[in-house]
């Protein structure tokens, strides 16, 4: 089932096209990898999907009415003196209407998400004392607690070590297998794209490419990264 389609999307800033004629499909339960060189416009496309940026050409067509879209940012080291526990931090994004308290069903859901993201043992630890991997899982939990149909990971595994990045993605993968969730992930990491992506969108200033088997795109990513290392 298609959730979202991009038809001939183009983004133009100040008379300069970042890209044109971008076509893609986000399929239910799939992980779509959004790849391309630095500055090509990946985050800008995410902003368009989030409704924060108008496209200059083409159309984004939603096939799911009122899909909840949640976002996990890149790890940032500058979260100092943030005086909340992990559990309190995760609960910040829970919608409890005008009630200042959580119902028992809401508390149960929070406990469930904290367990799914492997944070139970440290739920009462302050978030500013958590490791990078734990903090990213807390960001992920904060996104999942909103029950999204679409999860956007914007380089969410960047700056994590090998163990932490696979741990985070295993949680995402496990969750999407058990819930109605599709994922769009921006990543420069060929290991992550290879292991988790079902589909890919390779954005370029020239001809962008959408496909359902990321292998060829991963080879192109590796070639691009090797070329950059030799400059
Ligand atoms: N509102 C804006 N007005 C003008 N230019 C913009 C605007 N937003 C983004 N840009 C430019 O568009 C280009 C693409 O930016 P974007 O952050 O989307 O790239 P990216 O592919 O996500 O890069 P990276 O991989 O480095 O994170 C950049 O040159 C940026 O300066």
TrEMBL record:
Coiled coil: none annotated. The keyword Aminoacyl-tRNA synthetase does not apply. Keywords: ATP-binding, Nucleotide-binding, Transport. It holds the Pfam family ABC_tran. Residues 4-230 form the ABC transporter domain. GO terms for molecular function: ATP binding; ATP hydrolysis activity. PANTHER family: METAL TRANSPORT SYSTEM ATP-BINDING PROTEIN TM_0124-RELATED. Belongs to the ABC transporter superfamily. This is ATP-binding cassette domain-containing protein. It comes from Weissella diestrammenae. The lineage of its organism: Bacteria, Bacillati, Bacillota, Bacilli, Lactobacillales.
């Amino acid at each position: 089932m298609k959730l979202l389609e991009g038809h001939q999307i183009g983004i133009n800033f100040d008379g300069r096209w970042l890209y044109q004629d971008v076509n893609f499909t986000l399929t239910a339960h799939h992980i779509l990898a959004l790849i391309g060189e630095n500055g090509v416009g990946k985050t800008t496309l995410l902003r368009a999907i989030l409704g924060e940026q108008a496209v200059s050409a083409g159309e984004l067509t939603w096939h799911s009415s009122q899909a909840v879209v949640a976002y996990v940012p890149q790890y940032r080291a500058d979260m100092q003196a943030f005086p909340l526990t992990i559990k309190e931090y995760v609960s910040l994004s829970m919608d409890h209407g005008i009630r200042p308290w959580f119902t028992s069903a809401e508390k149960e859901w929070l406990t469930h998400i904290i367990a799914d993201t492997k944070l139970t043992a440290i739920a009462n630890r302050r978030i500013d004392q958590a490791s990078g991997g734990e903090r990213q899982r807390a960001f992920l939990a904060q996104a999942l607690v909103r029950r999204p149909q679409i999860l956007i990971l914007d380089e969410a595994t960047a700056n994590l070590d090998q163990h932490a990045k696979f741990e985070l993605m295993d949680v995402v993968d496990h969750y999407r297998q058990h819930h109605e969730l599709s994922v769009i992930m921006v990543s420069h990491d060929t290991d992550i794209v290879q292991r988790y992506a079902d589909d890919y969108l390779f954005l370029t200033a020239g001809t962008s490419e959408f496909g359902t088997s990321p292998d060829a795109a991963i080879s192109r990513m590796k070639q691009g990264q090797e070329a950059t290392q030799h400059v």
